[in-house]
Each structure stands twice: as structure tokens, then as C-alpha cells.
Amino acid sequence: MSVTTASARPAIVLLSGGLDSATCLAIAKGEGQTPIYTMAFDYGQRHRHELTASKILAERYAVKEHRVVTIDLRVFGGSALTSDSAVPKDRNEAEMNAAVPITYVPARNTIFLSYALAWAEVLNVDDVYIGVNALDYSGYPDCRPEYIEAFEKMARLGTTRTGFTLRAPLQHQTKAQIIRRGTLLGVPYGLTHSCYDPPANGVACGHCDSCLLRKKGFAEAGVPDPTQYAT
Q: Which region among 16-25, 64-73, 132-141, 176-185 has the lowest average model confidence (pLDDT)?
């Protein structure tokens, strides 16, 4: 295992390339975490353009190491993000929160966090950041505070990282609050990618749940939306 100095407080940030994860990276940087490692996943998602965004953001923030882990969640299916099922479009908030949406990828956060936890053991890292939030989360069960608490407890019991802390600094904030906070931290939101169903050129569709929540967040925050939308 690598050795860190007593004064260092390293961290791993799950960096999908989206708005929330970019804000988490800026928060970790602002809180003095050093060095910072970032991790993204190529899991067979239809919106792989986010991986380009994650790499650009990692370079912008000069992280110590950025890793892209390749796994194939298409073997399980069950999500529009890893299959040919249609991505819901133009839904209102009531429709988004009526049930767990087809864009939920079964156990995705658990899988991602398990990889981050394994890397944390190797790096002697106790802090892992994840950009989930429990308000504008479209009904995903693995974004709930109870889930974050349970994973942290499991990680401390099942690994050598008895001081492991799963940091979810956005979990009780709306998209507007996240955007305001990130704007103060100088997050380059124009470099982020949130769309679930982008066309081949990678611009945002403007109609999926993620795009609609993003648009709403910028509007409510009173911050110009730098996103390039297809329509």
C-alpha cells in the first residue's frame, strides 16, 4: 500500500463528468483534500460522452490520478441507460418521482462505491466523495441518506479502512443550491455532461429527466445555463 504523510488528507472523488460530481470535486479541492484521485466508469452506458467530460475536469483540477474503470452492466440490463429501451422525455416532476424510473441502473452506486473502496484501501484513503442528492434525485433508491449511512458502516466493517467516510456534501441540496454553490467555487459547468440520451455529436437532448432537472436548476439558481442543447 502507498504511504501518505500524517498531515495529508487524500480523497477519492467519483467523477462521472456530470454537474453534481464536478461540484463535489470542487468542494473536495476547496476543503483542502490532497492529493485527490478521481474515478469514472465505462459501464456500457448510452451516454458515454460523460467520460470525456470527466477526463477534462480531472485535468482542469490537476488531480493526482484519474482512472476510468471498464465494466459491462449491460449483461444485467434493467435500465434504459444500458439497453435500447427508450429514455423517458418531457416528464413533469410528479411523473419523475412517481416510481423508480427506467433510467435507474440496478445497484450502480453500490458497484461504483465498491470499486472506490477497493482503491481507497490500496491508497490508504479514508474519504470518498459522491455527488448524490436526496431532493432532485428522480427516485433513485441509492441516493437516499439512509443508503449513504449504510454503505459507510459496511465499508468500515468489511475493510481495513475503519475510519472510512463517505462524503455526500450535496445530498440535502436542490439542483439550484448545488449550482449556486458550485458557481461560487468556480465550477466550469460548460464542461460537464448530464444528458441521458445525447445524439451522436454529444450535445444534450434537452428533454430527458436529467436535462430537465439541470435546466430547472440553472433557472432557479439565476445562473446562465452554459449547456448546449440539441433543441
A: 132-141
Q: What is the pLDDT of residue 5?
A: 41
Mapped onto helix, strand or coil, the DSSP state of residue 84 is coil
pLDDT(37) > 70: yes
DSSP state of 122: H
Determine if the pTM surpasses 0.90: yes
Measured in whole angstroms, the distance separating CA 115 from the mean position of its chain's CA atoms is 14
Distance between CA atoms of 118 and 120, rounded to whole angstroms?
5
CATH of domain 11-221: 3.40.50.620
User: Which segments of the chain are extended strands (E)?
Assistant: 11-14, 36-42, 65-70, 127-129, 165-167
* Neighbour order of strands in the sheet with 36-42: 65-70, 36-42, 11-14, 127-129, 165-167
CB 59 within 8 A of CB 87: no
Q: Is 123 helix (H, G, I), strand (E, B) or coil?
A: helix
Minimal CA–CA distance to 130: which of 18, 24, 11? 24
SS (H, E, C) 197-211: CCCCCCCECCCEHHH
Q: Provide the 3-class DSSP secondary structure of residue 218.
A: helix
Q: Is the model more confident about 6 or about 104?
A: 104
| C-alpha distance from residue 102 to each of 27, 57, 78, 200 (Å) | 30, 28, 7, 21
Contact 123, 129 (CB under 8 A): no
**What percent of the chain clears pLDDT 90, i.e. is strictly above it?**
87
